[in-house]
Write a structure and sequence with these properties.
The structure holds 2 protein chains of 2 kinds. By secondary structure, chain A is an alpha/beta fold. Chain A has 16 helices and 16 strands. In chain A, β11, α13 and β12 form a beta-alpha-beta unit. In chain B, α4 runs antiparallel to α9 and α6 crosses α7. The chains are: A alpha/beta, B mainly alpha.
Chain lengths: ~400, ~250
């Protein structure tokens, strides 16, 4: 959808020429969120603004939807791309409705269609149209303003969104909320999004692909998990942080590390059955469920040996169950909180589906390292080690 | 809120605080009592015909010179903000600033020496005296529109003309109107001087009253002048209230 080919920008300053973007090559597929990440002055914003031609490139090519952007009038081009900036930039003289209607109006929509679209978008942003359509930007909170900013960018339903640190000026709590809303929206809208950020956590959360810049060069262009697991060089390793493996937890769901083959026993079944199942699975505990399969407690092997009766009568309190679609970071946090080595997992209906264990999680996180070590040890066809196979970037 | 805070430091005059009209009315009433006591009411009444005629003439001068100043000053101020001439803009503003230090009376005198006696030199001098605040406020008003608004507008695919008409001017209007207000207030107050070069207006009563040592006559020129200044100010404020977007108007929250 968006292809950057040897994109270069050289600014002529009083201090001499400065290369803000140096032969940047990357490709963002349709429906993907690509986060341009890096410290300030690394060229990420310059690269972004060259895409909608707020900054004219020095050399190289930009293709959007297969078309060379040089062949499109800059004004036309920009109307096909939603643009969101950190300062939000809602026009103070216009109401929310007028702000959202800016691009549609330029595209010649009639006022009824604009109104309908504004209502639709405000509803999507969880802002009541009846309240907000006629408001002016200064009557909104920062978070509300940025929601309207996103709505405005989406107004004419452009296939591409260009976002320059869109959530950077919002307080951390609201930022999380807006990011979540935005991700949920993106799941249905499937826009192709270029997104500048300097926050690795935000990048990991939002991105399908992360492009890390330094000094105008694209250092690594890869999935968030690979950037975290296999940083291409020490700069990136430092930038993504010493706790990068922990950050990967956010990329995984509970279901990714679920051990579905975990025994359970109904509360009214006998302790003997529970003990037998524990032996079968070679584990020291078993989850006790009610008639419907909801976990209610657990029986430890040590408690059960030599006793009789129903399993439910010997059950202990259960570590709090986690949902299958919860992110793993929260689950691990919960494990640490409860000093638990395992947690029962439930589906949407609360039915027991298996368990996650600390060992299972560390094993899963380690997979990629073992694969990389294995690949490095086995030479590829051309004789070069193919170690982390996903490196692409300025080095090429 | 940041915007509200910023707004607080802008002199608020358009949304009149309710106290102000009440105070004005009280002051006017007090003045009326005073005036009656001195027999001024009779004085004013006896000159009513002169007053209305001269007031009309007075306001004609204001309308023509002020109107021309707005017609010239606003486009000129806008022109100065365009990228093509922005480099020269500061110099142009300097020239205007220096020009504004010339006393109005001197401008009138100069104007008379070139254009002779009558309405025309008066209008020219008033126009010149009124131009500066309009140009300056238009210029700074537009320059003060935050950069990121222009960037957002550009990024959304607005043409430079659309940005000027839909973003820059509407957001600068409040400041521009402040300039127009100042300019017209100065204008109304300066018109009496136009009498000195044969321009007419309420100056006729004021200066003749001074010359003849007739306070009654002088006041029947001065009081209407003051009233007209206040009324003009109110009218401009009212117009601004309708023209300037509520989202840009400070202190309206």
């Amino acid at each position: 959808m968006i292809t950057l080919d040897n994109l270069t920008k050289i600014f002529n300053t009083s201090m001499g020429p400065v290369t803000a973007a140096d032969r940047v090559c990357m490709e963002v597929a349709e429906g993907e969120v690509c986060v341009l990440l890096g410290p300030s002055g690394c060229g990420k914003t310059t690269t972004l603004k060259m895409v909608n031609r707020l900054i004219e490139k020095t050399s190289g090519k930009i293709l959007v939807g297969g078309r060379d952007t040089d062949t499109i009038d800059a004004v036309e081009l920009r109307r096909t791309m939603g643009y969101v900036i950190q300062q939000i930039g809602l026009f103070p003289n216009m109401t929310v409705e007028e702000n959202i209607g800016v691009v549609p109006r330029m595209l010649g929509w009639d006022s009824q269609r604009i109104r309908k679209r504004a209502v639709e978008l405000l509803e999507m942003m969880a802002l009541s149209p009846a309240v907000f359509l006629r408001r002016y930007p200064r009557e909104l909170s920062g978070g509300q303003q940025q929601r309207v900013g996103v709505a405005r960018a989406l107004a004419a339903d452009p296939p591409v969104l260009i976002m320059d640190e869109p959530f950077g000026a919002i307080d951390p709590i609201n930022r999380e909320v807006i990011q979540d809303e935005f991700l949920k929206m993106q799941q249905t809208l499937r826009k192709t999004i270029l997104f500048v950020s300097h926050d690795i956590d935000e990048a990991v959360k939002m991105a399908d692909k992360i492009a890390i810049f330094r000094g105008g060069k694209l250092e690594q262009f890869d999935s968030p998990d690979n950037v975290l697991a296999h940083p291409a060089n020490s700069f990136i390793a430092d930038f993504v942080g010493g706790d990068r493996t922990l950050k990967r937890l956010r990329l995984l769901k509970v279901r990714d590390v679920l051990n579905a083959d975990s025994p359970s026993v109904r509360a009214d079944e006998s302790l003997d059955i529970a003990v037998r199942r524990m032996h079968e699975h070679d584990q020291g505990h078993i989850v006790v469920t009610d008639q419907d399969g909801r976990p209610t407690g657990c029986v430890l092997l040590a408690d059960a040996v030599g006793r009789h009766g129903a399993a439910g009568d010997h059950a202990r309190a259960l570590p709090s169950p986690v949902r299958l679609d919860a992110d793993l970071r929260g689950a691990v946090s919960s494990m640490f909180t409860h000093d638990a080595e395992w947690l029962p997992c439930v589906d949407e209906a609360g039915i027991f589906r298996g368990q996650i264990t600390q060992r299972g999680i560390t094993h899963r996180l380690g997979d990629t390292y073992r694969a990389a070590a294995h690949a490095a040890a086995v030479p590829a066809d051309d004789g070069r080690p193919v170690a982390p196979q996903h490196f692409r970037g300025a080095a090429e | 809120m940041k915007t509200a805070l910023a707004a607080r430091y802008v002199p608020r005059f358009i949304p009149l605080p309710p106290l102000l009209p009440a105070l004005a009315a009280a002051a006017l009433f007090g003045l009326g009592v005073l005036v009656h006591a001195t027999g001024l009411v009779d004085e004013l009444a006896s000159r009513w015909e002169d007053i209305t005629f001269l007031s009309q003439q007075h306001m004609e001068l204001v309308a023509i010179s002020g109107g021309l100043a707005i017609l010239c000053g606003v486009p000129f101020g806008i022109l100065l903000t365009r990228p093509a001439v922005r480099r020269m803009a500061e110099n142009a503003m300097q020239v205007l600033n220096i020009g504004s230090t010339i006393p109005t009376l001197a401008i009138l005198a100069l104007s008379m020496s070139v254009l002779g006696i009558g309405e025309r030199p008066a209008i020219f001098a008033l126009w010149a005296a009124t131009l500066l605040p309009i140009v300056r406020n238009t210029y700074t008003g537009i320059l003060e529109v935050p950069r990121h608004l222009i960037e957002a507008a550009t990024g959304m695919g607005m043409t430079p003309l659309q940005i000027l008409l839909r973003v820059e001017i509407p957001n600068a209007l409040y400041v521009m109107f402040a300039g127009i207000r100042t300019a017209l207030a100065v204008n109304v107050g300066t018109v009496p001087l136009a009498f000195l070069i044969g321009g007419g207006g309420l100056g006729e009563l004021i200066f003749t009253g001074i010359d003849l040592n007739e306070p009654g006559m002088m006041l029947s020129g001065a009081i209407p002048t003051a009233t007209l200044a206040v009324l003009t100010d109110l009218v401009v404020a009212l117009v601004a209230r309708f023209v300037v977007s509520r989202g840009v108007m400070p202190g309206d929250r």
